[in-house]
Design goal:
Blueprint lengths: L27 E2 L30 E4 L10 H16 L6 E4 L7 H13 L4 E4 L5 H10 L4 E5 L9 E6 L1 H15 L4 E6 L6 H17 L4 E6 L6 H13 L4 E5 L4 H9 L2 E3 L17 E3 L2 H13 L2 H4 L2 E3 L6 E3 L10 H13 L9 E5 L5 E5 L15 H7 L7 E3 L1
Parallel strand pairs: 2-3, 2-4, 4-5, 5-6, 6-12, 7-8, 7-9, 8-16, 9-10
Antiparallel strand pairs: 1-3, 11-13, 14-15
Helix pairs in contact: 1-8, 4-5, 4-10, 5-11, 6-7
Length: 406
């Protein structure tokens, strides 16, 4: 799920619903449990070629790699965003078309799912997983009257095909604070889809480790990589292996809650991803970096309705618009966690500091943030070049000090 910096950031009201809306069928559903208001007309003029002048005419397609009905994780969180967009814009259930359990490594299945959305009249189609990128690009050329928006990729065509992602590394730093305060072994495990070969996973691991170091400079983050975004069996097995090594907090960058369940079963702690995983591991989960995808989905669909798609561009936003954040601090966290997370969140939202700025954070005995100039080094001790968005989203290929492959 490699990513790219946006050229424009739009904010929209963040609103989540707490129920997934797809059936367990592996083909599709066009219903959702989110309540929908009566559709309202937009007064904006349609775009010259394919704008939609009324909300009751728009139809939205979404391709999910998993099943949102699972109740947590990647597809669940994206579908909460679709539900939030639907409610924000007052769309009816029959204006949403979902395709679920579409493997992003199966080009034929991806093509079929997207073409079914086109055939059913979708004006905009969200393809939510990295592996959908090339197929989405090709079909955007084939269907110029339809808008295509690809999650986590880096390709676009400046016409009817863009990409979207966000600064989830900011939220990972905050989760690292929770993990660093909780560990007693100073060994923290991290089950990741990939490692240094993809900037998305690499920057996330590094941000998490820097958060750990802000409160516990002696702790080490041990990483095991899956070579897959969705591998439930190994998500469990790798978490268990890290626990066997002595890791007493398990973090993750993968699609299911299985690492958190493994932590619960072993009597240790964990930081989930995508959604709040406290329900799956009530005695283990600390916090999770989470997405509020309705912020983007609302902005994108509104742009199609208003005929302002060209102004949207490729989308890359962060905590400043509420696209990313952390789940509520659970009862399992150290008592300092909430205050520390709140303090760093304020710095990020106000634009006073960011994770890879070359300024390290720590906390004094009164819980106040202390800033120290500290240029980044990799885990061999070598200095690294200044980190900008292009590095975070595309070229970061090293682990920082305090990260080791397991």
């Amino acid at each position: 799920m490699k990513i790219k910096q946006t050229t424009a950031i739009l904010a929209a009201a963040a609103m989540l619903f707490t129920a997934a809306a797809c059936s367990n069928d592996s083909t599709e559903t066009t219903t959702t449990t989110a309540p929908a208001a009566q559709p309202q007309e937009s007064t904006a003029a349609p775009e010259a070629s394919n704008g939609i002048s009324k909300k009751d005419k728009i139809k939205v397609g979404v391709i999910h790699i998993g099943d949102p009905a699972d109740g947590s994780g990647y597809s669940y969180t994206h579908d909460l965003g679709i539900q939030g967009m639907q409610a924000n814009l007052g769309l009816n259930d029959d204006q949403i078309v979902r395709k679920i359990n579409i493997s992003d490594s199966d080009t034929a299945a991806t093509k079929t799912a997207i073409e079914e959305c086109v055939a059913e009249g979708c004006n905009i189609i969200f393809t939510t997983s990295y592996g959908y990128m090339d197929t989405t690009e090709a079909l955007a050329l084939e269907y110029p009257e339809v808008y295509f928006s690809h999650g986590t990729g880096y390709k676009s065509n400046d016409k009817n095909f863009n990409n979207y992602f966000g600064r989830i590394y900011q939220a990972r730093y905050l989760a690292g604070i929770a993990a660093g305060l909780k560990t007693t072994s100073n060994k923290i495990g991290y089950v990741s889809a990939y490692g240094t070969e993809l900037a998305e996973t690499c920057s996330g691991i590094n941000a998490f480790a820097l958060g750990v170091q802000a409160v516990n400079p002696d702790a080490i983050v041990y990483v095991k990589t899956l070579s897959s975004w969705f591998d439930p069996a190994n998500e469990t097995a790798y978490a268990e292996a890290l626990i066997e090594m002595g890791c007493d907090v398990i973090a993750q960058h993968c699609d299911t809650a299985n690492p958190q369940v493994a932590a619960q079963n072993a009597g240790v702690f964990g930081c989930g991803y995508n959604s709040d995983m406290t329900a799956q591991a009530p005695d283990a989960h600390l916090v999770a970096p989470i997405w509020n995808w309705d912020v983007y989905y609302t902005a994108a669909v509104q742009a199609v309705i208003d005929g302002t798609w060209a102004e949207l561009g490729n989308y890359y936003a962060g905590m400043e618009v509420g696209l990313v954040g952390v789940s509520p601090v659970s009862k399992n966290c150290d008592e300092k966690t909430q205050g520390y997370i709140d303090a760093v969140t304020e710095l990020i939202k106000n634009g006073e500091w960011d994770v890879f700025s070359g300024v390290a954070l720590s906390f004094d005995e009164n819980g106040n943030v202390v800033k120290t100039d500290s240029p980044l080094t990799d885990n061999t001790g070598a200095a690294v070049a200044p980190v900008d968005d292009a590095t975070i989203t595309g070229t970061m290929n090293y682990f920082v000090k305090g990260v080791e492959l397991a």
